[in-house]
Every structure is written in structure tokens, then in C-alpha cells.
Design goal:
alpha+beta; 232 residues; two-stranded antiparallel ribbon; single chain; 65% helix; elongated
Length: 232
């Protein structure tokens, strides 16, 4: 299976499991789920609260939350996310990553933990040098994909995405959990919106840097293939 196709399948599978686990966890602990989206962009399919969108690169679970919507005065808000005990507000954003981390470590065994820990530094260093360090890491990933079965490839890819999602930035699971801890279980704090905006910037910068790295790597790969075809 070509590495690019494996990467796409890994991304789709990770996204499906990640979003589904968080939605299931929310329902299990008594939080109302407003909508579940698989992918981003225009909607392709809609079934009740579930939306399947064009690009399978991310997704989200929208919960009942008084910070995001205006509720009726007689609503007790007991099923709203921001009215939950602190442990629930921390558990929920970490649930999807936790399940995928356990699954990936179960496939890779003990060496998987070393890969998971190393992934944090690789993500940051690759983002700081998208045309050099990131290119080396992507090359290593492609080699691994060419020489191992899909289960191992998915497990390693999943560990890397788990590490990315646990970074302490807003919009990521790690940042959401940290904000919940900072609120101390309170439903609302005045400073959260400002802090969230600042916490978005580093995560966005890392994401854009890696998108540039992927784009450059793909361009080099296609150029090399085209050159090889011409020579042949």
C-alpha cells in the first residue's frame, strides 16, 4: 500500500475513533451532545446530530455549554459541560486521546512509549525547521510505512497525533484540559476568553509549519518521481 494512502487511512481512522470516543464519553457522563462532526468543510452527509464533512482531517464534538449558547432561565444546566465537576471537564477532552494511546501502545508494546515521548520533541523541532528537520522525520516515517504493516503504521501515526493533541494549546485536547483545571471547575471565568485567544497562536503556528513541511515533502517526492520517469 503506498505510504500516502496509508497516511490518509490512518488520519481517517484516528479521526473517527477520536471523535466517537469523546461523543460516547460525553453521553456516558450525562453531558448533552449538540452535534458530532467528522471532518471539516462542507457537509456531505447528515444523520441526526452527526455530520460527515468533505475533508477528513479533523472533527469536533459540540456540547451543551452556557459559554457558547443562551439557555432558558428554567434550565438547570446540569447537563452542560461547563457545569460539570472538574474531573469530568478534564476527562472528556482527554478521553479520545487516552483510548487511542492505549490502543497504540497495545499494538507497539513497550517501545511505543519511547516513540510517544519522543514525538513531543519531534513535533516542536520539526515545526521550527519545516524544510530540514521535518523533512528528515517525514522521510523516516515514509520508510517505516514502506517496511511495516498497516497496524504498526497506524499505531505509530496515532501516537504522534496523540502527542500533538496533548500539547498545552487552546483548540487541542491538552489545552482544553489545562483550561478546565485553571477554571477550577467553575462554569465561567472572565479571563478565559482572552487567555484562549493567546493559547491558540502557538498551536496554529505549529500546525501551519507542519502543513508547509508536508507540502514541501510532497512536492519533492513528485518532482523526484517525474525526473525518474523522464530518465527512464
Amino acid at each position: 500500500m503506498p505510504p500516502a494512502f496509508q497516511l490518509l487511512l490512518c488520519l481517517i481512522l484516528f479521526m473517527l475513533l477520536h471523535i466517537s470516543v469523546m461523543a460516547a464519553c460525553a453521553r456516558a457522563v450525562g453531558i448533552t451532545v449538540r452535534s458530532v462532526s467528522y471532518g471539516v468543510g462542507p457537509s456531505l452527509l447528515s444523520w441526526g446530530k452527526v455530520r460527515v464533512k468533505l475533508l477528513p482531517v479533523a472533527g469536533n464534538v459540540v456540547l451543551k455549554d452556557t459559554r457558547e449558547e443562551t439557555l432558558h432561565d428554567d434550565d438547570s444546566c446540569l447537563d452542560a459541560y461547563n457545569f460539570q465537576p472538574l474531573w469530568k471537564q478534564v476527562l472528556l477532552p482527554l478521553s479520545g486521546v487516552g483510548v487511542l494511546l492505549a490502543l497504540s501502545l497495545g499494538i507497539l508494546g513497550a517501545p511505543g512509549w519511547d516513540s510517544f515521548v519522543a514525538a513531543f520533541g519531534q513535533i516542536v523541532h520539526g515545526a521550527l525547521a519545516p524544510l530540514s528537520t521535518a523533512q528528515e522525520l517525514l522521510g523516516e516515517g515514509e520508510t517505516f510505512a514502506r517496511t511495516h504493516g498497516f497496524a504498526l503504521v497506524f499505531a505509530l501515526f496515532s501516537l504522534t497525533l496523540c502527542a500533538f493533541n496533548l500539547l498545552p494549546f487552546a483548540g487541542l485536547n491538552g489545552g482544553q484540559a489545562l483550561l478546565a483545571i485553571a477554571r477550577g471547575g467553575r462554569a465561567f471565568v472572565a479571563w478565559e476568553e482572552t487567555l484562549t485567544k493567546w493559547m491558540l497562536l502557538p498551536g496554529l503556528a505549529i500546525l501551519l509549519a507542519w502543513l508547509a513541511a508536508f507540502g514541501w515533502y510532497g512536492w519533492k517526492t513528485m518532482a523526484a518521481q517525474a525526473a525518474g520517469a523522464i530518465i527512464f
